[in-house]
Design brief:
The structure is a homodimer of 690-residue chains. By secondary structure, chain A is an alpha/beta fold. Chain A is built from 20 helices and 23 strands.
């Protein structure tokens, strides 16, 4: 059972009842001022915790969200989120001692980002859990439960919430960054319910987050932060009962960029009347004037305020018996949190190719060249929306510390080298020589968060123009390849890259999503075989940008493993191990059905480790509906689990599915039971007839 | 005895004799092309090695030059330079295997920078050995001897030179960076010979460097790269017999910015006729046309070419018996080179104030807050004109690794925070809380090479507008001070800063010049008392910018410890220890005199360590001439040595001086013997009458 809001809401209603209208209006802004006569301290609602408490000094910096997704380990992500909740409380307890909180000092986090990474060019894609709504839902829900102080089933672990999680960006939001303040994303009803809204539904139902943030863009014509359609779905269809926040400046965008209204006052009225309670930005400064103009009534303002104060009461902000008040700074970067951070880093690295060169034997005669712009770059560990780690290990550092033999380093090139001067370092030659000197090259190419991210001067307004390696790195790769030394490519990025050339010419290829403060250590463990790789791709790796539909097109046709008809370079879910697993005995255990009495079942199978190394295996269960009357996915992930299997041993893996796993979404956006299915798990399949 | 050039010059003359005029002209450019018919490979003369092989991948990154100067340890700087020579050869041997060398791949280094750091605002001051010509000469000469492969007395250690050193920038050059391409530095004859040229004289006489680089600016009206006056002094007065190089683009500046000529052709003729043999830049591409216009004769071109090829022969570039050809990559970042690097880092840190709080006892209960923009910044280790270290230890990292108790880190502010957005991290609050949490604060303020350096978009064209801490750091300091926790300030910079407030309110103050790859480790050793500090300031620390003459004014009046009449915050030569030293028995040992039979003597004294810790002591010997008829320095450094003295022990220190130590330079720039002197060493003094 979830938190019982009754008492908190009553207390909130009583407190809000003492406020003047102007005071109520003031509390609808993210930087809510103190109301001293009522004993209310100032509170800044804006804080971030995407993969660790962010932007407020030292904190454990866990792997970026996309890297969490590649672990397919929602149990450990839950532990991460709980750790974040504790670190955040420790900081909040200190900050609060200085008086009211400023930005990034509170316990209301505008995380997780559960948008669908529908196109690899989206700069912010690495903030998400990838391209699949089910995976995104599972990871998002685990995050919410952990950070809010609930158990894995959603039961509160204390009288108060540990923190508020906020799902973002509701909805559909996924680029282009350059246009986000005025863009209208057009999505069909089918794509909305099947893809763009599904993870929101899942997270709301499974984890009851405190809040949701509206997106910058319009969706099908309505500004997301003032969308009766979207908010209606959220409350009525998904059962959301928390508060809604605007993205920062998004309400002002309604007049300034969407041109749906012609003033902040009207935008504010439109938003609050639609159900947006809290404004990040300044538009709601005009709320009192909107009231005076008759655009909004007092009850609407009062109810928004009550929702916000219910949350504050539920966080124990006005209590003297909140156990979380005792959390001390010792939680920050504790050894337990670092253990979780390391575990996720290890699990997040994906082995894409291996001809047997990996793992390397860590011999003192083995000479290793670590080459590339990402090799010794701290930023690729941290991603974005990040904190400051107390220590960190880059890829080069990780290898250097662990290797028994000589390690040579060469940056080789920048991520993007434009016109460089005559007096610049000749890095290609340096890289070539390092490769010549070595027995094996660890080639660290890719991107950094400086080149894919949020609305920025970098990249293409924050996005990527294409998914190919930048020219300077392609050149670097060829120069190093010419040295003739075996290459192990480590692609570093928060998104899919076109690695065809590397696939053809490298002896092994690994994907390193922005891996957190210990990312380099984890990678080195994998290279030397101390850790058996187990990460899986949470996004499709296409062969080239030519394979992609136009970025601005929000149709899911041709996107993600569900609808892309071509042959990807590396499919969603791909990831190798140093051992081999054999699946058998895939069995359906029928259970009570979903919508319209749809077929429903959980599954078991035996997973045998047929190799000589212990290892984790991520088991992915897909379904394809073979006789649907509308478009259905080529296949659809309906369950997964991660199992540890000792060499030679067999483990029975149990995979639960959702009640509606065997339904599809039709063109009208309705959930419809299917009839004939193929269930796929590794090389096994089952045919199921309803 | 020095290298015998006879054979090399004969070989050069023979080879040059086979060249066409056009071929000879082509060899006067820094990027000299191959002449295949003569078996001459392409050679790029431009390389840098200010404090380690620079700009060509991994190399040991020794402390920046200004930090070397603060060690007053020219013996160890000699070792550094020798190590650099070996690392550079190792790289050259590899590069050369690829064919001709490109930029930063050769063995002709445009180091050291022996300009006088006359004003703390000069951005490039940290490339120098400080404000004193004698110290600069000593350090510069040690560098030249080491890198060129000679012993400490100047005797060649091999048939060939290990590398070429190049003294720069001849002469007077020291800002403003923004105006350097057209600036006319006006200096009196007295200032020229007493200050600006003295270290060049010293280094040429003591170390016979292969080359000298002309400066960008004009000096007293003549473009330095084409100055008959300056080159005349260099050859005729100082006995220089090497080759002269232009700074990069400086010959083109003669027409483009100095407007002394109206074409590159005329500038080139002016330069080569004055004696500039090698052009960095493109002006000498017009040399053939200058010849055809009758501006330069073939013999001048031939002789320049012979000088350059003499150098190449002397470096063994056309030999098959050069032992340096065998140097392998194992020299790069060898453990021996790292030992030298660490030693210099330890010796370079200057303890400016200490009320007894230092050294810290490294107790596991001691909680330390490390705060400030320089605390965890790699760039402040590397300085400029740097290589890439294979590993490095920032100040925070050094403390964190060594401390037994908790270490908290907060960046606190940027170096310079301009207008920051609403959404920026509130770093002051974070810093305050870190301080509150701790028992002691290590406050790392100052600058990075991003804010003082060569002609750039940063700072004030590379220079500093003032010597005060930037506003954001002053604010940070006050916020942290308000926490009430004892502060140990570590000022990080390559130049003197106004630290009055820190002097008043910190319990200890240290100066960390850009300290090389192990700078942070060395600092931590000092904080915890594993190393006893022994560095001394190579520059005067003034109280404020108001104390300084105008930056553009090249008169030495009011500058440096020699002519500044005010009371500095920390004088040149200042530096404390954890132990105490007592000087006694200062004795002059008269020797044959200098110019005009000037008085001359070496000195001895007893240095007793009266404290309880072993330590190094830098003994500085000054003279003041009491009855000169012209302006003479308030005092003048004429000798120094570094001695290691065990606790309770006494060591006799021997200080040699130059023959002309007891001379002065008069207004005409002539060296004149003095008569009455006070010799000062610590609290001891001797009165000497000729």
């Amino acid at each position: 059972m979830d938190f019982d809001n009754t008492g908190f809401e009553a207390a909130a209603r009583e407190l809000v009842g003492k406020m003047t209208l102007a005071e109520k209006c003031s509390q609808l802004k993210y930087n809510a001022p103190a109301i001293e006569r009522l004993g209310i301290p100032a509170y800044n609602w804006w804080n971030e915790a995407l993969h660790g408490v962010a932007r407020t000094g030292v904190a454990t910096v866990f792997p970026q969200a996309i890297a969490s997704a590649s672990t397919f380990d929602d149990d450990t992500l839950y532990e991460e989120a709980r750790a974040i909740g504790y670190e955040g409380r420790a900081k909040y307890n200190e900050y609060r001692s200085l008086g009211g909180t400023e930005i990034y000092q509170g316990i209301t986090y505008w995380s997780p980002n559960i948008n669908i990474f529908r196109d690899p060019r989206w700069g912010r894609g690495h903030e998400t859990y990838g391209e699949d709504p089910y995976l995104t839902g599972r990871m998002g829900a685990a995050f919410v439960l952990g950070i809010e102080g609930k158990d894995r089933s959603g039961n509160p672990l204390s009288k108060y919430k540990l923190a508020d999680a906020t799902l973002k960006h509701y909805a559909v939001h996924s680029g282009p960054e350059a246009d986000r303040h005025g863009f209208d994303a057009k999505a069909t009803a089918q794509d909305m319910f099947e893809t763009y809204l599904e993870a929101f539904r899942y997270c709301v139902e499974k984890a009851h987050p405190s809040a949701v943030i509206g997106a910058y863009n319009r969706t099908n014509g309505e500004p997301c932060c003032a969308s009766p359609t979207l908010f209606g779905i959220l409350h009525e269809k998904f059962g959301f009962d928390g508060y809604i926040v605007s993205d920062c400046g998004a309400i002002n965008d309604i007049n300034a960029h969407h041109h749906v209204t012609d003033s902040p006052e009207k935008s504010s009225a439109l938003a609050i009347n639609a159900g947006c309670d809290l404004n990040c930005g300044s538009a709601y400064a005009s709320m009192l004037s909107a009231f005076e103009s008759g655009l909004v009534d007092e009850e609407t303002i009062t109810e928004a305020c009550v929702r916000l104060f219910t949350a504050r009461f539920r966080l124990g902000m006005f209590a003297d018996d909140c156990e979380y008040d005792k959390i001390g700074y010792g939680e920050v970067c504790s050894s337990e949190h670092k253990r979780i951070c390391r575990k996720l880093a290890r699990e997040s690295i994906v082995l894409l190719e291996n001809d047997g060169i990996l793992p390397l034997s860590n011999d003192e005669r083995l000479k290793i060249a670590v080459i590339g712009p990402a090799a010794n770059d701290k930023k690729v560990l941290l991603g974005n929306y990040n904190g400051t780690p107390d220590e960190y290990v880059t890829i080069y550092e990780g290898i250097r510390r662990k290797a028994r033999g000589a390690v040579y380093y060469s940056e080789g090139s920048g991520y993007f080298d434009g016109e460089r001067g005559d007096w610049d370092e000749k890095r290609y030659a340096d890289a070539y020589l390092a490769a010549k000197r070595a027995d094996v090259v660890i080639m660290c190419v890719g991107l950094s968060p400086d080149f894919e991210g949020e609305e920025g001067p970098f990249g293409y307004g924050g996005d990527k123009r294409d998914i190919e390696l930048p020219a300077s790195q392609r050149e670097l790769y060829e120069r190093v390849l010419a040295a003739g030394t075996p290459i192990i490519t480590v692609n570093v990025s928060g998104s899919a890259m076109a690695l065809g050339r590397q696939s053809e010419t490298s002896r092994a290829v690994l994907q390193f999503f922005y891996g957190g403060q210990y990312g380099g250590e984890a990678l080195a463990e994998i290279l030397f075989g101390e850790t058996n790789p187990s990460g899986r791709l949470p996004v499709t790796f296409y062969r080239s940008t030519d394979e992609l539909p136009p970025f601005e097109d929000y149709s899911m046709e041709g996107r993600t493993y569900k609808f892309y008809e071509g042959e990807p370079l590396y499919p969603f879910g791909h990831g190798l191990s140093y051992t081999t697993f054999e699946y058998s005995c895939l069995t359906a255990h029928e259970k009570d059905g979903g919508t319209d009495g749809a077929y429903s079942a959980d599954f078991t199978l035996d997973v045998k480790n047929t190799g000589e190394r212990d290892g984790d295996e991520v088991v992915l269960l897909y379904v394809h509906e073979t006789d649907a009357e509308c478009r259905v996915p080529i296949k659809k992930l309906i369950g997964f689990c991660r199992v540890s299997v000792g060499a030679g041993e067999t483990v029975t893996a149990a995979i639960k599915t959702e009640p509606d796993a065997f339904c599809h979404v039709n063109e009208a956006g309705e959930t419809v039971a299917g009839h004939t299915f193929e269930v796929m798990c590794g090389n096994l399949s089952l045919n199921i007839q309803r």
